[in-house]
Design goal:
single chain; alpha/beta; TIM Barrel; nine-stranded parallel beta sheet; 12 helices
């Protein structure tokens, strides 16, 4: 199985997609329709998230395994330290290896029940993502990703300190980093400059999401943890009563953000799909990122 970094070593930019494990049978049908549709478009890799507080661990393992075994896609599983002992984490990593998954995104995760609450580590668990990176690296030949925060982690004191923590994770054994959602391309590009200035050349991958409904916009803003620029609200808020116009403007905004990032040499655009394929398909088609086979 190819690694994420192998898939980024191309002479042209690529895209990847993120899915959530299904909650029920209906969700599972929606998810697999989207997976099959996006599989035809040739993404570099696909990731499957954990639920809040590690709540969907078993579904994440099962879904990632199906992607590995039943599709042509390169899967990346998420792994969080939330509410897990080191022994449990070793088991999960072993499960991933057993089902053929060798790409893992390692995050500490948010406190269960309150993402903004204080982190209380388990006595038999980990406190920092860097510790989890070292464990995964110790246990096998994995390609490891970590999270990064273009506007800084909510608990960081300043951007320079936050960047040093990111570089520490990369030097502990991570191969690449995927950014949390953001709205301003310059925030991501400044993060890349700070990482480069510290002598680190690991790939940084931006997360993109087309906010095609007012509800999705509200959820995206909540997930990002970043301040929302006035220009974004000025473009979308007047359209909240016109679903078609709102969606069209949202697709334009996502496309413009991607175009700026690609112009600055970003190697991969990682699309958060909410298990739906259409908006991502429209954006990557506009950007000309379809694989040669899919474009025929």
């Amino acid at each position: 199985m190819k690694s994420v970094v192998d898939r980024l070593r191309t002479d042209r930019p690529v895209f990847s997609v993120e899915f959530m494990p299904p909650r029920d049978a209906q969700d599972e049908q929606l998810l697999w329709r989207s997976i099959r549709k996006l599989e035809q478009l040739g993404p570099a890799f696909v990731s499957v998230t954990y639920g809040a507080g590690g709540s969907s661990r078993d579904r994440t393992v099962r879904t990632t395994g199906r992607v590995a075994q039943e599709t042509t896609l390169v899967p990346m599983a998420h792994l969080t330290a939330v509410d897990h002992s080191v022994a449990e984490l070793r088991n999960v990593i072993g499960w991933y290896a057993d089902i053929g998954v060798r790409n893992v995104l390692v995050v500490r995760g948010d406190p269960p029940g309150d993402p903004n609450g204080e982190w209380v580590p388990r006595a038999d668990g980990f406190t920092y993502a860097e510790e989890l990176v070292r464990l995964v690296r110790e246990l096998g030949e994995f390609c490891i990703g970590v999270a990064c925060f273009p506007s800084g982690h909510p608990r960081s004191t300043d951007l320079d300190t936050d960047t040093r923590y990111l570089v520490d994770k990369l030097r502990a054994g991570a191969d690449f980093a995927i950014a949390q959602l953001f709205f301003d391309a310059d925030e991501f590009l400044r993060l890349r400059d700070r990482v480069t200035a510290l002598g680190c050349a690991a790939p940084l991958i931006p997360s993109i999401m087309a906010m095609t409904t007012p509800r999705t916009m509200a959820k995206t803003i909540e997930l990002s943890g970043a301040s929302t620029p006035a220009w974004l609200l000025d473009r979308l808020n007047p359209l909240v009563e016109d679903a078609k116009a709102f969606r069209a403007e949202a697709i334009d905004i996502a496309t413009e953000l991607c175009q700026r990032l690609l112009a600055e040499g970003v190697p991969d655009l990682h699309f958060i799909t909410f298990n739906r394929a259409q908006a991502t398909t429209e954006v990557i088609s506009r950007l000309g990122l379809l694989s040669a086979e899919a474009a025929v």
